[in-house]
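Worked example

This section walks through a single chain of length 381. The input is the sequence exactly as stored; nothing has been trimmed or padded.
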Amino acid sequence: MLVQSALSSLFARANEVGVAGTFQFVFSGQQHFWVRAPACTQVHAGMHSQADVTIAMDTSVFLAIMQGQSDIEALFAQGQLKIDGRLGLATLLPRLVSRALHGGDGERVEMDRRYPARPRFSEQLSARLDMRGGIERRTARQLSVHEFTTRYRAAGKPLVLSSALDDWPLAKMSMGQALEHFADVQGISRHGHYADHAFSSEREFKATRVVDFVAGMEEASGPTGDEPAVYMGNNQVPQQWLQLIRFPELFERAQYIAPRFWLGPKGTLTPLHRDDSDNLFAQVWGEKSMLLAAPHHREALGSWATSPDGGLEGCDFNPDKPNWEDFPTARNVEFLPVRLRPGDLLFLPEGWFHQVTSLSTSLSINFWTRSVRVPAETCVG
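Given that input, the structure is written out below as tokens.
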């Protein structure tokens, strides 16, 4: 009964989170339960013949998650939580857990619906920035935290810092050496035309061990046809790697959320979008190209949000295949190219649109923060 009660709590507010599908849970001791959300969140005993996704774990692991004592993504990475079926739907589980544990008063979210993109204060800031010289590049050791805070962070101005990972043990390792620290860590990779289904649960995902992904990545020659290369993107950095990286000192440590890693061969692609918080993006191996556009170009780029409260926003305009007829004002958008090399750290302020392409086999680690600018801040351009 304890497990059933916890499952009921998990799905009680599924309609608010935008989760829709049939979830099958397989616990230790031959305990099987399924829930169909959001139409009926009643917990049923047994196995469902047509479940969208099946999640298997030890009973104690699940109860620890529901008591806020364990992180669901970390458990997945360590293999203590197995997922089969529609992984795109399973990627919404952390959102479900967060709502069950912490509540929330936001508007109801519908899965995979596009919402109007709302204006942000970052748009006011970027509209008065002079970016005619492109994205500035500085050497990390020559920039103080005070100068970063007043000149770049407060102004919402992007910046590339070179030689920023000199104290990272991971940056000094070969891929083979680094993989020894992964052991049996598993991650979620993107396949097929994932760029055409950006930020949707309909994307094709697979769960695989990182070492197996790398082995397959090295055998592959790159993108097939018009499909981008397979990408292990936006996975939580495993515990084994935390001692091999350094949190940038540009923000207070408490402001960082768990860092994420992005691993793939040449040709991986993340289409044009923008996030809802500041981002420090570290390039560990290989090179990536980014195309940036300032926040105030929201309407010109056909921006849309994944939730009514805003948050992550995609774009209907594709700078690689511009549709000037549908987006005539996109001609006025100044796209700013950035090339990230090993050791570079990009400060990408909240609200800046960016498209990311791997130019070679690449590993990146990014640090999102609990920090955005507000109108009361003083900005130095």
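What to look for: Residues 283 and 364 are 5 Å apart (CA to CA).
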